[in-house]
Amino acid sequence: MDTMPSIIVKLKHAVIRQVQLPQGDLSIGRRPSHALVLEDAAVSADHASIFTVGQDSFLKDLDSTNGTYINNRRTRKHHLKPGDEIVIGKYTLLYQDHDMAPVTTPQPAAFDDAALFVLSGFNSGKRIELTSTVTHLGMAGQSAALLSRTGDRYTLMIGPDAAHVAYNGKSVAPGGQVLTSGDIIEVGDTRLQFYQH
């Protein structure tokens, strides 16, 4: 007997729930009427859907503001394969084609598992790997903001050439702001999302 495909929903490395994918459509978004509600400001009211036929599932982004990422690439439509990681806001959805007990022990974040996704502005859609101790953000030759890494923690700080720098729509404190996966950063006209696996 075939088992139904499912997704494991994770937030900050912690498994929240496992969802069996029904035949037909499973809607995802911030609106309470969706089958899978993700409560995060970076998630659109109507964000995405997963359509399942037999053992095959297809993800579709519903013109969301901040996009849907599969295996670190912004995607509009995708035929899901076992092991695919879907990132929507602060949430990670792990697709599998069988039932599996949720993993209870989160894996520690590795340095090379942190990145910035450019949501809008110059280089929109680009992924920026955070591999340095300090990463400067801003136009070439300028440092409007910077990300400082200490261990597996990343802190957003205002740089010497700062214009408009914001964190989740708020001003950045003088001492900096420690980031969590899914946070939205604004530097000038550019919006970025921090992601840490």
UniProtKB/TrEMBL annotation:
Pfam families: FHA. InterPro entries: Cell_Proc_Reg/RNA_Proc, FHA_dom, SMAD_FHA_dom_sf. CDD domains: FHA. It comes from the Bacteria. PANTHER family: NUCLEAR INHIBITOR OF PROTEIN PHOSPHATASE-1. This is Uncharacterized protein. It comes from Acidiferrobacter thiooxydans.
